[in-house]
Amino acid sequence: MGYRNIYDAAFNRDGELFTYDSDMEWDMSLPWYRPTRVCHAVPGSEFGWRGGTGKMYEYHPDNLPPVVNVGPGSPTGMVFGYGAKFPAKYQETLFCCDWSYGKLYACHLTPDGASYKGELEEFLNGSPLPLTDIVVNPKDGALYFAIGGRSTMSGLYRVTYVGKESTLPLKIGDPAPAPLREARHQLEQFYGKKVPKAAETAWPYLSHEDRFLRYAARTVLEFQDPVTWQEKALNEKNPIALTHAIIGLARAGDKSLQPNMLETLERVDWTKLTAPQKIDYLRAYQLVFIRGGTPDAAWKERAGKRIDAWYPSKNREVNAELCKLICYLEPSDGVTKTLALMAKAPSQEEQIEYSLSLRSVKTGFTQKQHEEYLDWFHKAANFHGGNSFHKFLANIRSDAIASLSSADK
Questions:
Q1: I want to staple 143 with a disulfide (CB 3.0 to 4.6 A). Which of 55, 125, 159, 377 is the partner?
Q2: Mapping DSSP to helix (H, G, I), strand (E, B) and coil, where does residue 174 land?
Q3: Which DSSP helix (H) or strand (E) runs through 304?
Q4: Which residues contact residue 66 at a Cβ distance below 8 angstroms, ignoring those fewer than 6 apart?
Q5: Which residue in 380, 408, 403 sits closest to 392, CA to CA?
Q6: 120 strand-pairing partners
Q7: Sign of the CA dihedral running 178, 120, 1, 245
Q8: What are the tens digits of pLDDT across the range 44-76?
Q9: CB neighbours of 182 closer than 8 A, spacing ≥ 6?
Q10: What CA–CA distances, in Å, run from 192 to 24, 92, 229, 236, 364?
Q11: pTM for the whole structure
């Protein structure tokens, strides 16, 4: 789940499924814009697309990253080049059609841990060339694609190779060993059912360096009764395993465990985490609040004071995630720090990120800071983006005004 709009999908020789997902062009130049992307559609996967600002970001641990980001476009048909009388690399590539920009991409995939990585090549293009679907004809080894749709002229094209490179079919032997992919497959066998020792089997992978394995291990936990593994999660000492176990517990466990989960998160030494690990850790905090609800006043102050000590960070993405928590928990100097970041942010996307988080803050503003914040919307009126861009800014401003007291209004 978590796709914007997928028209087609294709299996590779390893039996792995891939798809080419659409973007929402109206979101262009906003921080939550997700480009078109080739995704490895593993069982149980989540790719984070939601309407509006509800999207997960690519780096959030509770969704998976694409094989490769492509950019603006309108994905349609796709096929692997198996059987094509083409040079070797094109016999194995994943061909992806883009309707709006008239491009046929060749996505060259190579194994990467439990998944793959992709290298994109523009194979052919035309203007206009609204590609709709594609197939390899095994009889003549040619690549055929159709064009048309939405009142454009239809057509059928045949692509062949002329050149000196060999077009002989590749000799396909036994697949190369892929131990991490096999480990993922083994974890996926536990999906959808409660199995004794499933959590025990998955647990070591919660701290694995491979993101797809960490995701699979957490997914295994969420399919088991949380009562059987919640104490292990709350007593975990490895900071990475702890982070992902708490994400799983926040999503699948009882809301009454929120104080216990917050206490567990306090055992992690922030200074020893890498930037991606910090993002995962902050996401654990976010999900404890998103799924468990607003904490009581004591925990709100305690968590706010802890997180405020790390804010701001030197990393742009870490700052974005810190800002969401700061504006939710409202420590005393959160507004001051956020406005300072907003004033020096080099891109409109980053400025909008901070503005979005600030819109619901009800405490910590001085009158001058309220004026500074609301004056920013006049500056933002000169920003440019997709069709919904200024409508989103208007909604953020409306929310910010709704958060004001009568006297501040």
A1: 159
A2: coil
A3: helix 297-308
A4: 21, 37, 38, 39, 40, 47, 58
A5: 380
A6: 107
A7: positive
A8: 999 999 999 999 999 999 999 999 999 999 999
A9: none
A10: 31, 33, 17, 25, 46
A11: 0.97
